[in-house]
């Protein structure tokens, strides 16, 4: 079992009587799923349907917390305030003390979580939740004080967790999980192209959200020409970006990688005859 301590220092808090309805009208997932014991994953798109932000959400009473990548906090905060208009909400940035990833087989049991996507608990020493995208990505831990951080480090020591971010990256790529920074997705990616439909970021039944029209049209028309896949080579290590060829034809390019595995945006009509193993394309 493994852990990694991120350099993350800020999350966003939205509170007020219109908090749920405000988010419901702009993000791709359904805020009605956001219970006190459940975290969800969602995105905020441009009106043209391209990805601007992705984030986890969890709720504590009348407060909703958005947990984006650190590089996206400022832009997301600005965008939320732009859309706020007359909504009776308060949007603020909240400092945190530390942020951990725990991952590996049955890792959730260490902190008393079930093997359930998005399960959330506020413990006496931290906020913890299973990653709602894919259970193989383990759990996330937010500490608000040095005291909480010390408690988590005691658990790391007692359970003999190994610090290894490379193992996390390997798991992310093998499960075809895009990363907005590493895969260069900001304002470049459509959700259906980059596997967001399969990592619990979209609710098709919730009603309108920003960028919905473009996203729904792509789904209904089946107009995708390229899609994100996990690829693997037994003969080389990948780079990113790197052109991917099959029978001397360019079929796509990598977006992020770890040694001999990578995420790659590939032409759908060019991969039908390529060998696959457990949904991984062998190049």
Write the layout of secondary structure elements.
Layout: E1 2-6, E2 10-15, H1 19-24, E3 40-45, E4 51-60, E5 63-68, H2 73-84, E6 90-95, E7 98-103, E8 120-122, E9 127-130, E10 139-143, H3 146-158, E11 162-163, H4 165-174, H5 212-221, E12 226-232, E13 243-246, E14 249-258, E15 261-267, E16 276-277, E17 280-282
Parallel strand pairs: 1-11, 12-17
Antiparallel strand pairs: 1-7, 2-5, 2-6, 3-4, 4-5, 7-10, 8-9, 9-10, 12-15, 13-14, 14-15, 16-17
Low-pLDDT regions: none
Shape: globular
Rg for CA atoms:
19 Å
Count the E strands: 17
Structural class by sheet pairing and helices: alpha+beta
Major sheet description: 6 strands, mixed
CATH architecture call of the largest domain: 2-Layer Sandwich
Describe what you observe in this structure:
It is a single chain. With about 280 residues, this protein is of the alpha+beta class. The protein folds into 2 domains: about 1-165, Gyrase A, domain 2; about 195-280, no CATH class. The protein has helices at about 20-25, 75-85, 145-160, 165-175, 210-220; strands at about 1-5, 10-15, 40-45, 50-60, 65-70, 90-95, 100-105, 120, 125-130, 140-145, 160-165, 225-230, 245, 250-260, 260-265, 275, 280. The chain has a 6-stranded mixed sheet, with helices on both faces. A 6-stranded mixed sheet has the order 13-14-15-12-17-16. A hairpin with a 4-residue loop joins strand 8 and strand 9. The two termini are about 30 Å apart. The model has no long low-confidence stretch (mean pLDDT about 95).
